[in-house]
Amino acid sequence: MKQTVDVHGHLIGGQWVRADAVQENINPSDTNQIVGRYAVGTAEHVDQAVRAARAAFAAWSRSSPQLRHDILRRAGAELAARKEELGRLLSSEEGKTLPEGIGEVQRAASVMDFMAGEALRIPGERVAGLAQGSDAEVTREPLGVIGIIAPWNFPIAIPAWKIAPALAYGNTVVFKPADLVPGSAWALVDILQRAGLPEGVLNLVMGKGSVIGSALASHPEVDAISFTGSVPTGRRIAEAAVTGPVMKRLQLEMGGKNPLVVLDDANLDIAVECAVQGAFYSTGQRCTASSRFIVTPGVHDRFIEAVVERMKGLRIGHALDAGSDIGPVVDARQLETNLRYIALGREEGAELMFGGDVLERATPGFYLRPALFASTLPAMKVVREEIFGPVATVTRADDYEHALALANDTEFGLAAGICTTSLSSATHFKRYAQAGIVKVNQATSGLDFHLPFGGRKASSYGPREQGRYAVDFYTVIKTAYTSA
Ligand code: UN1
Fold first, then answer.
1. pLDDT surpassing 80 at residue 303
2. Which CATH number does the domain 7-254+459-483 belong to among 3.30.360.10, 3.40.605.10, 3.40.50.2000, 3.90.550.10?
3. CA 442 – CA 450 distance, rounded (Å)
4. Marked catalytic residue, from 104, 253, 386, 465
5. Distance between CA atoms of 236 and 180, rounded to whole angstroms?
6. Which CATH superfamily is domain 258-440 in?
7. 228 CB under 6 A from ligand 1?
8. Model pTM greater than 0.70?
């Protein structure tokens, strides 16, 4: 494809770098619309970016926390000031609705502010040593060059919550955004760079995961990889990351098949809201989405009826239309996956209660009506495998104990929810749900930026992201002994 003036380049060593290959960023709400043109990189770009990050590390890792704080604060302020504009860009490239897009940019701004503060609060401790006169200090130092590989479903918030702590704690970064959503990533990097980062501290290389992600995961000068995406890709990254001379530290956030348990004593309105919000908003494209509703007999039929009624009122349309509750699926491939699972659910004997059909709108896009399956059994693939679309299943449970067992009957362990008015069921579930995040009377998706995020089992590997806990991944501990 011919390069045009408006191509957005990579950022390597403080310079915007144009590439021979260019990709068009297509709007899933209107496939005739090109959101922008973005450079597509090679392993050579990754190598240059990693060298730049390595060269910048010595000075940046010793920089004043005040400097790092001020840069992050400035970036946060610009993100907040431009959230309407950047929210439009985000919704145009990813397909989530405009309020969701704007909300996500605000979240990125809040993350910058929070992490600006954390740059001033790097923890450490002084402890008495055991030998006579010996003192020990436990301090945290920057880790080095961090490779950040982000998914397409949160085009600005996930990059922000990985990049901000990396920089706050004195690391340098090579960032590879998802190739479906380079626009928000480019804008975020541009903002951080103009906020005053020295050259090479933050580098951006766009392109295919199979090329850029692999090159980053296997590069000997990269010290750690923070990745969010699928389990198979996470596994490939992990394998590549430990084969070099120095095994890289890993933080992998992967899939989910998150249960929402609804008990007989639940407030039905709350349960329906949690179900519909958690499963279908953001087009179900969240690793925290509730995809398995597990419902006890006394409320089972009423719950399905009420969810279907609520689904009938959902407006599926162009992400930027004020009337849309749910935007399109991100691309043709994901739509195909969703439809394949919807067909499979029927073949497996699940009962399609509502939705699952492709919709025509004024503009050509990947519009899908959210789907609800009932009469599903734990062994069905639609109940076991992550679909990453607006498809949810209802499984009947005999009682609370059975519901808990079904909730935990999965290889994943990211989020788990329960709707109940019983303190004892809620308390028991919080304790025994095998998940990194548990929600009571709240949708499983939608998380606070100041709290730790991560899962168990196949969902996650490595230390938590976000909040004060991010320090565990982005710093390395030193224990110093001194005798005077
Ligand atoms: C949220 O539900 O607010 O990729 C965040 C994802 C998760 C983030 C979910 N890593 O969906």
1. yes
2. 3.40.605.10
3. 17
4. 253
5. 20
6. Aldehyde Dehydrogenase; Chain A, domain 2 (3.40.309.10)
7. yes
8. yes
pLDDT value of residue 364: 98
| CB of 37 shorter than 6 A to ligand 1 | no
Name the residue at shortest CA distance from atom 3 of ligand 1: 446
Taking the CA of residue 444 as reference, the ligand 1 atom at the shortest distance is 2
- How far, in Å, are 118, 239, 461, 472 from residue 249 at the CA level? 21, 12, 10, 11
381-402 per-position pLDDT tens digit: 999 999 999 999 999 999 999 9
- Whether ligand 1 lies within 6 angstroms of the CB of 283 is answered as no
Give yes or no for residue 1 having a pLDDT over 50.
no
d(CA 274, CA 313) in angstroms, rounded, equals: 16
Residue among 292, 253, 272, 280 nearest 386 (CA)? 292
DSSP letter (8 states) at residue 331: S
Q: Choose the catalytic residue: 274, 287, 386, 465.
A: 287
Which residues neighbour 470 within 8 Å (Cβ) at sequence distance 6 or greater? 115, 118, 161, 165, 452, 464
Tens of pLDDT along 359-380? 999 999 999 999 999 999 999 9
Give the start-to-end residue ranges of the domains of the chain.
7-254+459-483, 258-440
Question: How many CB atoms lie under 10 A from the CB of residue 441?
Answer: 16
Strands 460-461 and 415-419: unpaired
Q: 7-254+459-483 with 258-440: one CATH topology?
A: no
**Is 419 a catalytic site residue?**
no
156 close to ligand 1 (CB < 6 Angstrom)? no
Cβ–ligand 1 distance for 446 under 6 Å, the answer yes
Phi–psi pair at 72, nearest 5 degrees: -65, -40
**Tokens standing for residue 327:** 């935007």
386 pocket-lining for ligand 1 (C-beta < 6 Å): no
Ligand 1 mutation pick, 412, 445, 451, max ligand atoms within 8 A of CB: 445
